[in-house]
Amino acid sequence: MNGLVRRSPWGEVLIWCVAVLSLTVLATAAVVRSTVLDPEFYGQVLEDERAYQRFYDEVLVDPDSTPLARDLLDRLPVPQSTITSNLKVVIPPETLRAMGDRQIAEVVHYLEGDSDRLRVTVDLEPVVANVERLSRAYFGDAVAALQQRSEPDFQAFVQRLSELAAQVVAGEAPLEDLPSLPLSPSQAVAATNALLRLVPTAARADLRPTVQTALDRGDVASALAALAPVALTDQVRAVAGELLREANAGTWVVTVELDPSYEALAPVDRARSVTRLFQGVVEPAAAVLCAAALTLLWFSTPSPARRRLMPLGWVPAAAASLMALTVFLLRLTSGGALFGPPASWPPSARTLLGDIQGAALDRLLTTATVVAVILLAAGALLITVGWVWQTRPGVPVLTDPRHGPALTFAVTACALVGTVVAPVAITGSAPRICQGSAELCDARYDEIAQLAAHNAMATTADRFIGPLQDPDIVGQLNAGVRVLLLDTHRWERPEEVADRLSTSDFSPELRRRLTQVLERVNPPHPGLWLCHSVCGAGALDLVPTLRQIGEWLRANPTEVVTLVVQDGVDPVETRNAFERAGLADLLYEPDADPDRPWPKLKDMIDGGRRLVVFAEKADGPAPWYRNLYRYGMETPFAFRSPDEMTCLPNRGGTDKRLFLMNHFVTAGGGVRLDAGVVNSRARVLERARACERQRGRPVNFVAVDYATVGDALGAVEQLNAERLQDDSRFPVRRSPDGPSGARGARGSPG
User: Fold this and answer.
1) CA angle 739, 740, 745 (to 5 degrees)
2) Exposure of 139 by Cβ count < 10 A (0-12 exposed, 13-18 middle, 19+ buried)?
3) Closest CA relative to residue 143, chosen from 164, 159, 163
C-alpha cells in the first residue's frame, strides 16, 4: 500500500483532501451538537437578549399589539386594566420561562428526528389559577360599597337582585345602586334561593348561611360580595375549560405539522433535514473516512516518524482555514438573520425575533471560530514539533532540563507584566463616572434629568395588586431609575380604608370594589409600610426597604439617588425609620434657601451624601427631610389618556429650581398598554421639551409608570446630552453667593 500511494501523487492529494474535508465535517458536527442541538444554547441566547423580559416590556405594550391584546382580554371575566397591570402575576416570568424551556426541548427533539411533529405545549393551569386569584380580589367585593336604593315591592326587589347578581357573575360590576327592602325571614330565604341558583350546586350549602344572614339584615352588598367570587371562579375555569379538556393533566397540546411552503416555518424544516442527514449519514461516514485518510497519510510518508508529523499537522490546519473561511462568508452574507418573521407581526415582535436570531447566529459562529482555532493550534503544534524534530535535533535551551525553571519564570513574569500593563496602555486611565456618565460630574444636581419611578414600591415582583412597576426597587435602580416616588402608610384599620381610598388616584369604581375585600383578606399589620393607597393591595416594610436602598448606594459609590415621599406617616417616625435603616451617613441636607443653586454631582459624591429625600407634606424635623414643593414644581398627574397630558402648573407653582414632569396615565390605577405609548423616547422628549419651553426650566425628574417599558431612560440620557452641548438654553438663576453644596440651616416652610 505504501508503495502504491507513493507511486500515485494524485492519490496522495486525494487522500489529503478527503482527510481535510472529513475533519471539517466532524468539526462542523461538533459545532452543531453544541449549539443547534443543545437546549442550553437556546436558553442562553434568550437570557442574553432578555427575551422574556422584553416580551412584557416591548411586545405586549407595542401599540400595534394593543388591538389583539384588547380583543383577547375582552373575553376574560376580569377587566383589561386589571389583567394588564397584573400581567406578570397572571403570566409570571417563571411560568413563561418554563414554557420556553419546554418548547426548546420540543424543537431540539424535532431537529434530532426524535419526533415527526413539532409540538407546542402550554400548561394553562398556573395561568388559570392566577386569573382566578385576581378575579377573587377584583370581584369579591365589586358591589360592596354601592349605596342602596329602595324597591317598591318584594317581587321587584328579587327581580332586580337577580339581574344584578347575574351581571356580577358575568364579570361586570354593577353600574347602578343596589336595591334595598326590609325582608321578613321567609322573604330572605326566597331571595337567597334566587341568588344561589347562579352558583354551582356544590357551593350552595357553604354559601347559604352567609348570604341569608346578610339578607336578613338587609345587607344586599355583602350578600352579592359573598356570591361573586365563587360564581366568578367557576366562570373563569369555564373560559379555559374547553382548552383544558383537550389536554392531559391540565395541559393544552397543539401539534403543528410543518409545511415547507409556509415561509416562517420552512427554515426549521430545512434545518431538520440537514441535522438528520448529518447525524444519520454524514457524520458517521466522515468519521470513517477521516480515520482512514489519516492512517493512509501516516503510512504513505517515509520513515522516520518525525517526518510523518508535518503532513498530519497540515490536515487540521487546512480544516481550520476552511472553517474560518466559511464563518467569514456567513458573517458577510447572513445579515444577522436566517429568516424573516411574517409581515403581520408587530414591529416589536419582529425586532425581538431579529435580535434573538442575530444573537444565536453570532454564538454559533463564535463557537465555530473557537473550534477552528483549536484545529489550527493542533495543526501548528504538530507542524512545529515535526519541523523542530527534523531540523533541530538538539536545541540545548529547549532540551536541557536545567534551563526549565528559568524559562518558566521568564514566561510567567512576562505574562503577568503584560496582563497589568497592556490594558492601561491600550485604554489609558479610567475616566471619572458620576450618575453613570463621565460628562455629568461637572453638572449640578438641578441641571440634569433623571428617570423617576412613580409608585416605585408597587411592583409585580412584590406581587402588588395593581402594580405600576415591574422590577423591585433594587431592580429599578439597576435599570437606571434614580428617583423613587414612594408612599408611606400605616396599615389601615377597616374604618380607615374608605378614607384612604378617597384621596387615592384609583377611580371611584375601583375604590368601591377594593374597600371590603381588602379588609377581609388582608388584616392590619403594625409598623410603617410602603403601600399604594391601601396596604392590603400590597405592602413593603419601610425600614428593610430603606436598608436595601442604602446597600445599593454603598455598592454603587458614584450614584446619587432621590426619594420623593408621599408621606402618610408622621415626619418624626419617618426620620426615626431612616436612622434605624442606617442611612444617616448618606443623607444629603439641601440648602435652607431653595433658591440657592445645588452642588455639582461630583461634590455630592465626594462628600458621600448621595441620598436626597423630599416629602410631599412634611418639612423637617430633620434638616435632610425637606418639602419638595419648596424646592420644586410639577405638572398635573391625573391624566386619563396620553392625549390629555399637559404642562400646566400644579403643586409648587411655576418658579422653582427643580421640575418634576409627571408622565403617566392614571386610569383606575395605571395602564400597562398606555405605558408602551407614553414611555417611548419620542413621546418623552416631545413633552419634556414642550414643558421646558413653557416653564423656562429644564425638566429634572421624568416620572413614569412601568419604567422598564419603552425607552424613557434613553430620552433622559438624550436630554442630558443636549444640555451638555448647549447649557445656555435655560436661564439659570444665580445666587450672589454662588453654588452651594454645604448644609444650611433649616428654612421656614414654604
Assistant:
1) 145
2) buried
3) 164
Q: Report the C-alpha gap between 97 and 51 in whole angstroms.
A: 10
pLDDT given for residue 254 in this prediction: 43
User: 397-434: buried (b, 16+ CB within 10 Å) or exposed (e) per residue?
Assistant: eeeeeeeeeeeeeeeeeeeeeeeeeeeeeeeeeeeebb
Segment 141-189, tens digit of pLDDT: 344 445 456 666 777 777 777 777 776 666 555 556 667 777 878 888 8
CA atoms of 232 and 78, how far apart (whole Å): 9
Domains detected in the chain: 2-123+258-388 (no CATH), 134-246 (no CATH), 445-725 (3.20.20)
| Pairwise pLDDT comparison (240 vs 40), residue with the higher score | 40
Instruction: Please tell me the distance from the alpha carbon of residue 602 to that of residue 620, in angstroms, as a whole number.
Output: 26
Q: What is the CA radius of gyration of the chain?
A: 35
Q: Which three cell numbers stand for residue 285?
A: 461516514
What cell was used for 234?
367557576
- Distance between CA atoms of 527 and 681, rounded to whole angstroms? 40
Q: Residue holding cell 383606575?
A: 668
Q: CB of 62 within 8 A of CB of 346?
A: yes
Q: What letter does residue 255 receive in the DSSP assignment?
A: E
Please give the full DSSP string across 380-447, using - where no structure is assigned. Answer: HHHHHHHHHHHH-S--HHHH-GGGHHHHHHHHHHHHHHHHHHHHHHHH-SPPP-BTTBSTTTTSBGGG
With contact defined as beta carbons under 8 Å apart, do 371 and 321 qualify?
Answer: no
Other beta carbons within 10 angstroms of residue 537's beta carbon come to 20
Q: Which amino acid is at 371?
A: V
Question: Which of 484, 482, 454, 457 minimizes the C-alpha distance to 471?
Answer: 457
Cα 395 to Cα 302, 399, 467, 610: the distances in Å are 24, 6, 74, 64
Residue partners of 585: CB distance under 8 A and separation at least 6:
608
Burial environment of residue 530 by CB neighbours within 10 A (0 to 12, 13 to 18, 19 or more): buried
User: Is 60 exceeded by the pLDDT of residue 235?
Assistant: no
Q: Which three cell numbers stand for residue 162?
A: 337577580
Asked if 425 contacts 416 with a C-beta cutoff of 8 angstroms, the reply is no
Query: Which is more confident, 25 or 590?
Result: 590
- CA-CA-CA-CA dihedral for 321, 323, 325, 326, to nearest 10: 170
452, containing H or E segment? strand 450-453
Query: 720 pLDDT exceeds 50?
Result: yes
Residue 668: pLDDT above 60? no
pLDDT digits (tens, 9 = 90+) for 130-140: 655 555 544 44
566: enclosing H helix or E strand: strand 561-567
DSSP 608-665: T--EEEEESS---SSTTEEEHHHHEEE-----SSGGG------TT-S--SEEEEE---
Mean of pLDDT values over 646-670: 85
Q: Which letter does DSSP use for residue 248 in this model?
A: S
